[in-house]
Amino acid sequence: MKQAIKKPIIRKIGTIECNNIVETTPIVFKDRLYRFEAVRRKSFFAGNAQANWSELKDPPCLHFVDVRTNTATPFFAENHTFGFPWTEDGVMYVVTGASPSWGSDTLHFFRSTDLENWELYSELHLPNWAIYNMNIAKMGDEYTLMIEISAPVEECGPKPFTFRFLKSKDLTNWELTPSECVFQKDRYAGSPALYTLEGDEHFYVGYLERYPEARYANSLARSKDLIHWEYSPVNPVLMYDEYEDKKIASPFLTPADRARIDAAEDINNSDMELCEFLGRTIIYYSWGDQKGTEFLAEACYEGTMKEFLQGFFE
């Protein structure tokens, strides 16, 4: 008789930001832990954290935050929306949507060695596509770019969002995989995350599952060919819980921030992103109402990413 899977234990640490920044990725660069943020509006840093993101009109852009010191790098990629960082050989790469609004048909690729000076080194144009979030992973000598799309309908199906895949050998030139390489075309899939593990043939995909009454939770699936998918039998990975999500995990949150957190609706855990740092798995995710009032929270697993991801299947 097959032994039941023991779901990895996640410890929710609590809320760390109160400014509606949610598309966030932890990443280690030159032995330091950073938080990559797609800053929806610069106004969030000018005392407007209480506004819904859609009410603010100045340009979206990107930056990194040094987690230990809570200091941010200069803004870059102004008028770009969403993004994902990848680091290799002392270089930080970032792919981002080349548009100030959601659903771009063009991706821009930036790189830097110091997180301050950025070179736009490549562009990918997919006419009539609508691209939102994106992720990169590497298996062997090949990179895989996963994109979240809502158009064209023949690629994403009738119930967007869904995920499609591209391949590259050099992080510069990308080719679409065949159309059958798609994730969850039959129903909604959002908040994409993509991971590979040494010695493991699977691609692990984090995604957002939609539940009745517009409620959402992070889940996991995996595949060896990007066509046939195995869903974790112990999904969801993260489920909303206002007592755990609303814990205060940052000394930089003001009394006004804390009051806003306490009063907020919590029907969503989304945008889960992972990295491994000092032997533990760092987890960032957002909670809120999935309508523009969102909070960034941190969680962790006391073990490696390999133990964490495989633990949801084996």
| Major sheet details | 5 strands, antiparallel
The radius of gyration computed from the alpha-carbon positions, rounded to a whole number of angstroms, is: 18 Å
Tally the beta strands: 21
What order do the SSEs take from the amino end to the carboxyl end, as H and E? EEEEEEEEEEEHEEEEEEEHHEEEH
Q: End-to-end span in angstroms?
A: 14 Å
**Percentage beta strand:** 35-45%
Number of helical stretches of at least 4 residues: 4
Shape: globular
Give the mean pLDDT.
92
Low-confidence blocks of residues: none
Helix content: under 10%
Which secondary-structure class do the elements indicate? Answer: mainly beta
Protein described:
The protein has 314 residues and is mainly beta. It is built from 4 helices and 21 strands. Strands 10, 11, 12, 13 and 14 form a 5-stranded antiparallel β-sheet that branches. It has a 4-stranded antiparallel β-sheet with strand order 1-21-20-19, with no helix packed on it. The mean pLDDT is 92.
